[in-house]
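REQUEST ID: PR-0412
SUBMITTED BY: lab tech R.K.
PRIORITY: routine
TASK: structure prediction, single protein chain
INPUT:
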Amino acid sequence: TMAFAGKYEFEGDENYDAFVQKIGLPSEKAEMGRNCKIVTEVLQNGDSFTWTQHFPGGRSTSNTFTLGQEAEMETMGGKKFKATVKMEDGKLVADFPNYRHTAEISGGKLVEISTSSGVVYKRTSKKIA
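STATUS: complete
OUTPUT:
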C-alpha cells in the first residue's frame, strides 16, 4: 500500500468552479473553498485511515474509514453518507453521493481527483510534514 500518512498543504486546483456547480454546492460554501489553503492530514494504520481537512479559521472535517468496509463519511458540503473506500492501483477510491473521488501520492504530492458527470476536478497538495 502506498504511504499516504502525512500533512499536505493545498498547492493548486483545476476546474473548481465547474465542479462545485455540477454537484450543487451552495455559492457561499463554494466561495469559502476557492483557492482555500486547506491542510490535509492523513493518519494511516495498515488499512485504516483518518483523513482530516483543516480549513483556515479553525474549521475541520474528518473521515475515518477502513479499506473495504462501509463507513460514515461527510461531503464537501457537510452532508453525511455511507461509502466503502477501496484501493485500486495504489489509489484510494470512494463513491460520494454525486461524484467519484480518488486520491493518490504522485511525485511526493497528494493528488485528489473528483469526477461528476464528466466534470473532472483536480486538487494537488504538497507534503509539509
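NOTES: The mean pLDDT is 91.
REVIEWED BY: pending
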